[in-house]
Amino acid sequence: MEELDIVILGGGIAGLATSLALHRKGIKSIVLERSETVRSEGAAFGIQTNGWLALQQLGLADKLRPNSLPIHQYSLLIIHCNGNKTRIRDVLIEEGIKRRESVGPASYGEVRGVIRNDLVRALAHELPLGTLRLGCQIVSVKLDETLSFPIVHVKNGQDIKSKVLIGCDGSNSVVSEFLGLKPTKSLSSRAVRGFTNYPDGHGFRQEFIRIKMDNVVSGRLPITPKLVFWFVVLLKCPQDSNFLRNQEDIARFTLSSVNDFSQEWKEMVKNCDINSLYINRLRYRAPWDVMSGKFRRGTVTVAGDSMHLMGPFLGQGCSAALEDGVVLARCLWRKLGQDGMNNVFSRKRIEEAIDDYVRERRGRLVRLSTQTYLTSRLIEASSPVTKLLVVVLLMIMFRDQIGHTRYDCGRL
Fold first, then answer.
1. Pairing with 20, which of 14, 100, 218, 310 sits 20 to 30 Å away (CA)?
2. Same domain, yes or no, for 115 and 100?
3. What is the pTM of this model?
């Protein structure tokens, strides 16, 4: 049986960010990823101020900025960049007629679209050679009978014992199940994400615009002067979407979904990079489950989607995962310090460190997941009464609608 100090399950954003944060503090970890290659699904992220603050602590912010345009006009969530005041713009179109265009207050911050592959490569490139192990699918987790340290069983029959186990293995997390967390829930919505390349330049303003038309919400975010990231969310997804077998089927389905949008919008979807298309049903961990969930068992914990899967309606999933990595590494360092994992009291200190991490993150994540949940209900609601109720709750609980973007997870 192989014995390691810290094992991280999942080589996505949360897993790589946590491993890199630990590496920056001089703490070694091993990342086990079930895929044969580093995961690339998801197309792109809109990273907001809080995410850039976390990336700064990881030492990656300045490396990622040159390949992503600053969004400084009509931004949805972050509304000030490089000295240019901007506004929130949401457009509602019904029966082909613009019914509402809402503009929000100015604020300060930074938002840029970042390609997922760029972020993954940047995180992985900074890790020591041998940190990331591909093709390691975890079947189960158990505790050692003598020392109560976690043991993971790999599909190939190998067992790995570790002093710390961090589950960053997504919505169907083996570690979340081990912790006894309630299963994630499914929304009725399904989202398609993709890229469109404009060889001669797209000419779009550096804005994030989101348009809701009947049962469809679509958004557009420029990444570079020639590349645009877009998404299409079907709020009440037809059953036939469950039988999309290949990229061509997804492309035809998505194009038919935006049939009532402008010609410019339809051309964007029609001319997309078909290989970039990614479709999935939206899932989330309920806010009340985040509030009450037991996120530590012995020296086992979770981060990223395994801890707080949320819909894309605030664009905070990626940034929150980056925050997790910084906070968890900082808490472990504070308790272990220079003694590292060899200290005779390390098990107790590890548990204290994880408790500190969970305590610090829970309040932040409850607010994020609650605001995301209410926003999704507002977008999906068809009843005027339900819409009014959700709007009132949002106004009472989140008077500063973009306050979550100014959160600082602190120094590593």
1. 310
2. no
3. 0.90
